[in-house]
Write a structure and sequence with these properties.
Number of helices: 14
Number of strands: 13
Radius of gyration: 21 Å
Number of domains: 2
Distance between the termini: 32 Å
Shape: globular
CATH architecture of the largest domain: 3-Layer(aba) Sandwich
Helix content: 40-55%
CATH superfamily of the largest domain: Glycogen Phosphorylase B
CATH topology of the largest domain: Rossmann fold
Length: 367
């Protein structure tokens, strides 16, 4: 959100962000306006709030009278956006997550089989198709997710990969051995592993910890889990009494996050339902090799230098790939990761693609 606000402001574009929060309010965010609409806390993660009144939201959005109305959530926010009258000149949606495959398809498939899973999720996909049809463009960051949605007959899809701020995420952020060990809270002779993301159920942290546990039984390694969230008590129980796992919390400062990524010997990723895999991309730009599942957003790097993929949800396979990566000479492996990172778009390039889409939509409206 902050990167988007800064990018709009730098280009002289008036930008208003409307989010749910503890109370109504308005403040400046890097030149954009951040408006907060009061709403209750989410039951699973009380650090988040929810929109509950789509009519109130639609009236607020109508008063703002934007040329382009962006939808970043497919729930009440989307309903409020769809009810805005008169209709904005352009209405877009960003596909940030895949709630159906993340929370429904996998469990249904494991219990009842593929055919039953497809039958049960079909009505939900029909609802999302209707939402997509009401948007003039639907931005999808990950290549695998774009293909998946295309197969599901989604309309107006635009493949718009996230951009990486290469001025921050770069190999020069790497610390020397002594400072890196101090940053991770690890012995100097331990291999440093890092994982990053929200501590939530869908991120599969028990899986990552299980794979690391297998690796640590015969290798001197140390893991830093960067993040916070509702699953933190579960993770803390796993870490109780261990000295080879540290929980630095959510690293808000981007240069500090780059230091973790660049100083690690390896980044491990466990979620097979990511739509893009931003932390994986940022680590590669730091020259850090990655171990990723063979499904989801990070799977776009399968077969690339510096990338080790494993069968999704197989902790033993993940541990073996981590070991294989650590067995290789570090300098050539880091250079390989950097070669792969050249496939990624830069921060400015990615945002300009979105703006060009907006220009085309507005030009169509005027024609």
């Amino acid at each position: 959100m902050t990167d988007r606000a800064r990018a709009f402001s730098e280009r002289g574009i008036e930008h208003v962000i409307v989010v749910p929060g503890a109370r109504d309010g308005c403040e400046s965010l890097h030149g954009s306006s951040l408006m907060t609409v009061s709403g209750p806390k989410m039951p699973y993660d009380p650090t988040y709030h929810a929109f509950v009144d789509p009519l109130r939201l639609s009236r607020l959005l109508a008063r703002l009278d934007a040329d382009v109305l962006e939808i970043h959530s497919p729930y009440v926010a989307a309903l409020g956006a769809l009810w805005v009258r008169p209709r904005p000149k352009a209405r877009t949606m960003t596909w940030h997550s895949d709630p159906i495959d993340t929370f429904l398809s996998g469990s249904l498939r494991s219990r009842f089989g593929e055919r039953a899973a497809r039958w049960c999720t079909a009505p939900w996909w029909a609802l999302f198709r209707a939402l997509n049809r009401s948007s003039d463009a639907v931005f999808v960051a990950g290549h695998a997710q774009y293909q998946h949605l295309t197969e599901l007959r989604m309309d107006h899809l635009v493949h718009a990969p996230f951009g990486i701020d290469r001025s921050v995420f770069r190999p020069e952020a790497r610390l020397d051995t002594e400072r890196a060990a101090s940053l991770f809270g690890a012995p100097k002779d331990a291999a440093l592993l890092v994982a990053s993301g929200r501590f939530a159920r869908e991120k599969r942290w028990p899986f990552v910890l299980s794979a690391f546990d297998r690796l640590s039984q015969h290798r001197r390694v140390h893991l830093s889990l960067l993040g916070d969230g509702p699953e933190r008590p579960l993770i803390e129980r796993f870490c109780r009494g261990r000295t080879d796992v540290t929980l630095p919390g959510f690293v808000r400062h981007r240069p500090a996050l780059a230091e973790y990524f660049a100083s690690a010997d390896l980044l491990v990723h466990g979620c097979p339902n990511e739509t893009f895999g931003l932390s994986v991309a940022e680590a590669l730009c730091c020259g850090t090799p990655v171990v990723v599942p063979d499904r989801g957003g990070a799977a776009q790097f399968r077969g690339c230098p510096g990338v080790f993929d494993y069968a999704s949800n197989d902790a033993g396979a993940c541990a073996k790939k981590m070991e294989r990566a650590l067995d290789q000479p570090r300098t050539p492996l880091r250079q390989a990761a950097l070669r792969t990172s050249r496939r990624l778009r830069g921060h400015t390039e990615s945002f300009d693609l979105i703006l060009e889409t907006y220009r085309q939509l507005l030009h169509r409206e005027q024609a």
